[in-house]
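User: Hey, my collaborator sent me this sequence without any context and asked if I could get a structure. I don't really work with proteins. Can you help?
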Amino acid sequence: MSSQEYQPKYQRQVQLFLVFFLMFQPLLDLNIFFLNSKLVFFGLTIPSLVRMGVVGGLCLFEIVGFLRRPKINRDLSKKWLLLALIYVIYFVIHHLVSSKYYTPFVSQFPYSVKSDTIYFFKSLIPIVLIFLFIKYRISNYFKEIIYGWILLIAGSIVLTNLLGISLSSYTNEPIVGNIFTWFTGIYNEWSFLQVASKGFFRYANEISAILAILTPFITYYAFIERKVLPIVLLFLTQLSMMMIGTKVALYSFIVMFAATLILIVFYDILLGRQKIKLYQVLLLIVVPITYVAIFPHSPSVARSTSMSTVVKAADEKEMEEQPDENLKIEDESNLKRIQKPIVPVTDDNQIDAIYDNIEKKYPEKRISHYFLLKAYPYNVDPVFWVGILNQKNEKTMNNRFVEQQILKRVKAVNDNPLESFFGMGYSRMNHLYPLEQDFVAHFYTIGIIGILLFFGQYFLVFGIGLAILFKGKIFKLQAYEAITLMSLVYLVAVAINSGNVIDSLFTPIIAAALISKMIFDYKKIIMRKGEKQK
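Assistant: No problem. I've predicted the 3D structure and written it out in structure-token form, which is a compact way to encode the shape of the chain:
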């Protein structure tokens, strides 16, 4: 740093504050904060208030620091003002598009400017944090932060499972047995729903995704550092991801573990930067063996077996045309046979016949009551539900399929081309149903332009990867740099296929730390010579 370059005050203090703020993020995602409506203030939960308060306070600190600089050091680039203007213009257009909707839907699925405004500010937090993390060089404490995250997340999941006090990943009720009961026939008495455990965290999918992107880092540290702590944390990560019981967690561990080993072998061993050691060989043997030994007894495998059995039984039942007397529509108050549905039918004289068809087929298809009666009631759009009920059982029992079909239908009925670019609104989609595929959900919520503005940092990951490739620097990466890139690409893939991954603030804040590190390292990678790295 040159003597003329301005050195902001409290650089070290803010850096440490951000490190601890990052490290203790898992504590802000405990389920207890989301159970009581009395813990919601101004439409925000306590974790959201804390995160928004911290980021808002840091922004205010930066503004005050900027104004207190000598005039010669005040350099406010016009690009920041332009960027702020773009966000304002987007919000105005989004509001106009979302508020002027298909008239009958406005009361049925209302739009709230307050709710969407809060959503936008929350979506900006990870973007702001990326700049703060880069400025204050949080990457200097990257390893310590990774250790802290894994200890709090994986460690607490394993401990609460062993004690039998963990919440179920699917029911939010206490589990009925710990990992040892998996081997003693617990699935003969209980469903995987009561066995899969997520500690005291909120969303199993979100925790699965976070542990998936942390697995490569702890694998790298365990293989490279030759210390007890990272090896213990690696096994905690493995156990916790098998305990969670989601497919993302179960399969991500072994996929990311194997991919990390490939990167270590290529960048550190084949390129002559490291020599293989005995303890690395032992880890390479022991970790897969323990995984293979536990795998057949895991809740996720039990879930796959259970779902296959249910689908097969439903198909057989439909072929026999024997209605299940135990499955009845529960909320008959929502089933008024109105003569003019909100979405018109071609022939009004056929309405009663359509209702009869829906009520006859509904029990056989095992569609969630919530979809048919609350999210998008069948008396609102009976023709749509007839089409859904004509689908195969494998599809109608898939919640994500039904969720997306509902959103597609609402968008089609509204018939506004601008909705593809600016969305229908976060509040309106939540009145329908929050789709369990994050990027697809954001397409309906904020549109293509909104995704680029609020989630563009994830596309930046691919941009950096392509830049490294085309600049011919792919062989000059360090293993941990390649691992960072791989983890973020994997996170995007998981978010495309799963829900509750980047929709809340927990995962995006962790991703912001990884992205900031990757950006921070990018210049070093591009400037790097061809010599071997130590």
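In plain terms: The CA atoms of residues 263 and 482 lie 7 Å apart. You can pass these tokens on to your collaborator as they are.
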